[in-house]
Amino acid sequence: MATINIGGNNQDRFYRYKMPKLISKIEGKGNGIKTVVPNMSDIARSLSRPPTYPTKFFGCELGAQVKCDEKTDRYIVNGAHEAARLQELLDVFIKKFVLCAGCNNPETDLIIIGKNNSQKIIRDCKACGQRTDVDMRHKLVTYILKYPPTPPKSKGTKKDKKTKKGEDDEQASPTAKGSSEEGTDDELTRRIEAEAASLPTADEYRDDDDWVLDTSAEAVAKRTKEFSKLLLDESGSDEESGDPYEQLDKWLEKHATSASSNDIYKKIKELGIAKETDQFLQNPDDQRALLGATEVLVSEHKDLFESKIVCSILMGYYQNDLLEEEVFQAWLEGDSSKTYRNLFKRNASVSYVDAAINQDIRNKAKPFAKCILFIQKYF
């Protein structure tokens, strides 16, 4: 069923106060034609008003007879009336007999005060606490005074609350069968409180020796030493902490004479550097550092100092997105080129090996450069 804001309040964008959209059904013909509102009970429930009130209001505004049969849940207005027209009248009813005149909130109760000719109908707002008068000149007022709404539930005095609390304490335990309040909020509260009372207290478990913490300098130093040892045991060694690129650099220094190109690649993958290709692509200096580490490794390992192996290492970097073409070309041109100085900011002046060795390594890498050009041209 479609819902709308109560009273057509367009400012209530989140539909906090909503009601079903009025539906009308025209029945009969000629003088017997009539309009039935099938969902009047649902609308009235949303407004916290008896369904007879808005139905009688339609009759007063349209000058038509109405019929309210609460047993069959049929609310009828004589004549043919479109749903849009009845919805407009319903909004007027809501404004006059539902919405608080102070805060424009629909959370109100109708209360009749006074006696005889001095009776008044007021809207008691549960949202802001204001009590605002209803226009006593409207024809519906006579019907409301004759058939008053059900009085709202009284909150009770402090004495009543104490009496009620005493009665609750004298009742059977929450687990007793046949309780008339089984399943209610009060019953659930009592059950929770009873179970909480049966739980052991902290004193039952407390061991004073366990709760005392030695804060002396010796004790603190001992705990620090144990904690440091634990960290080293979990990480393996000091070399395993810190930035992954620093770890790679230390590893290359340690295994400069024994590591193969496959070992280097496996170590890169192990450190998770291979997974961070986006960072590599965005940072030429890190790629230059990788090439520098490769220079050191190749220069210190004679088995690697061959054009075929150097190209194989570079191809591995390239295929795994560890090395950009632009970075490789700048490195190949050397640190004296303008491209090199413009591309590398942090590592532009860093020398990883002697200039002569560096030039020799770059010469051995030239076949790889031709391979890159071939790929660019045909792929």
Tell me the count of domains.
Answer: 2
> What is the β-strand count?
9
Globally, the shape reads elongated
Order the strands across the largest sheet as they lie in space: 3-4-6-5
Q: What string, H for helix and E for strand, traces the elements in order?
A: EEEEHHEEHEEEHHHHHHHHHHHHHH
SS class:
alpha+beta
User: Alpha-carbon distance between the termini?
Assistant: 61 Å
Radius of gyration: 43 Å
Quickly name the level 1 CATH class of the largest domain.
Alpha Beta
Mean pLDDT: 78
Biggest sheet, in brief? Answer: 4 strands, antiparallel
Helix percent reads 40-55%
Oligomer: single chain
Would you tell me which CATH topology of the largest domain applies?
A: Defensin A-like
Percent of residues in β-strands: 5-15%
**Level-2 CATH architecture of the largest domain:** 2-Layer Sandwich
Give the helix tally.
Answer: 17
Stretches where pLDDT is under 50 for at least 5 consecutive residues are 172-183, 205-211, 234-240, 276-281
Short description:
This is 10145_t:CDS:1. This protein is of the alpha+beta class and 379 residues long. The chain is 49% helix and 9% strand.
Description of the structure:
- This protein is an alpha+beta fold and 379 residues long.
- It folds into 2 domains: 3-146, Defensin A-like; 239-378, Serine Threonine Protein Phosphatase 5, Tetratricopeptide repeat, CATH 1.25.40.
- It is 49% helix and 9% strand.
- The chain has 17 helices and 9 strands.
- The protein has helices spanning 40-47, 52-62, 83-97, 140-146, 158-170, 185-198, 202-205, 217-235, 244-254, 261-270, 277-282, 284-300, 307-319, 325-333, 338-343, 355-364, 366-378, and strands spanning 3-5, 18-20, 25-27, 34-36, 66-69, 74-78, 108-113, 120-125, 131-133.
- The strands form 3 sheets. Strands 3-4-6-5 form a 4-stranded antiparallel beta sheet, covered by helices on one side. Strands 7-8-9 form a 3-stranded antiparallel beta sheet, with no helix packed on it. The chain has a two-stranded antiparallel sheet with strand order 1-2.
- Helix 2 crosses helix 3.
